Amino acid sequence: MSCAEPVLSQRATAYLDAAARSPLSAATARTVSDQWSEENPEGIVNAGLAENSLMHDYLARFWERPGSLRITHTDLTYSTSVLGSDRLFKALSTYFQTCFNPLEPVLPKHIATSNGLGAMIEHIAAAISDPGEAWLVSAPYYYGFGPDLDANSQVQIASVHVPREQCNTLAEVELLDAEMERRERDVVKPKITAVLITNPHNPLGFCYSREVLLAYCRLAQRWNLFLVSDEIYANSVYDAPDIPDAPPFTSILSLDVKKDAGCSPARILCLYGMSKDFGANGFRAGAMVCQHNDKLLSAIASKARPMRMGSPSDILWSALLTSDDLPSYLAQNRRALSRAYTYVTSWLRAHHLPYTPANAGHFVLVDFRKHLEAVTNDRVLEKGGREPARKEANDEVALLNRFVDGGVYLGPGASYACADPGFFRITFCIPRRELEIALERIETVCGLPHKTAEISRSCPE
User: Fold this and answer.
1) How far apart are CA 214 and CA 193, in angstroms?
2) What percentage of the chain reaches a pLDDT higher than 90?
3) CATH superfamily entry for domain 11-57+328-458
4) Which ranges of 234-325 would DSSP assign to H, the alpha helix?
5) For the purposes of burial, counting CB atoms within 10 Å of the CB of 206, is it exposed (0-12), middle (13-18) or buried (19 or more)?
6) What's the pTM value of the predicted model, to 2 decimals?
7) Which of 300, 302, 363, 434 has the most CB atoms in a 10 Å sphere around its CB?
């Protein structure tokens, strides 16, 4: 006697179908299931995920030190608020005052925390957007925004491509403004309810100037939008020898948006998290600062139970934020990022691989377009015929698969909505030996001369 199987929802079926069709998902799954380690030297080096492991030894020593962690009875309960603990609110308040130069003091009551910044974005979306509406973002952009917005809130991304030379200029905001005018003129749906920026930028690694941030504020006011500023890389800004005059980090919290941009401060939301500056992606700890919109904070609190941060992450983050070691940690992290960036860009220049200079974040966007031609030529030879000369997404996926076959994963440009196939994001803040292996494997896949060892000798850790 046969038994009928239970049926998943249409939504779950759609998720499974999309994952099965996605070659990017397949490459990522291969990488995660067979990652390189000292115990698995033939595994795949993950040089595509933005994880900073340069300070892991420091952090492990800090949190293992006697007296660093103090667990209270409250930590074993649902805490003092659905939005977080009083301890973490106070620690973050001091941190924002010290590192973000806010125009007005960031008080504990302005802060909400969550189990990761993705969860915070999802809950903000549910509070300011209805299903089917969209957030405006310039492309390229962080690939996780789409899933974060769509997973439960069913909010979409409306992206506008910005040429590389116009990024972080007033022309960038003008392109978004023109898109809003087009949508209004042609009655284009979905409705836009927010504009989203990443500052410092992911994947391009620059800090937005004050002038451009104020232009974004004017855009938000003109079109009645929220302005969501993701500042998760705020303290991952470093000295980059190839752009000595790079703009420093300017937080949206530091601007007088009402006086200088005619923008209501109630539109401004600042996001932050533990994953990047504190090298702790696995702890799942995010935060939002909302200084002038109590109604929004109340709306998020009313549905906050699923996004609550666990007490262990709260305890660990608070301990570091309130430690006398914090300034030393942040300074060491910046120096480590600068050395790693200098090393990987020296390697790129040695191989004449164009890249977008950066001074923030954990990565650099590299132009591998000339290596797409080899993929296309091989496809012609395999088929015994000739395909039209083109550089399409399938060529980029083919090159991605070659990298993975060769034992290294890089972040494909398609994930970040890059306009042209052939760009890949390389994460450089992984342990030096692991990064060396990744670069050696890229040399092999691309048929480049092996220069990694020579460059390693000239660029000390």
Assistant:
1) 18
2) 72
3) Aspartate Aminotransferase, domain 1 (3.90.1150.10)
4) 257-261, 294-302, 311-321
5) buried
6) 0.91
7) 363
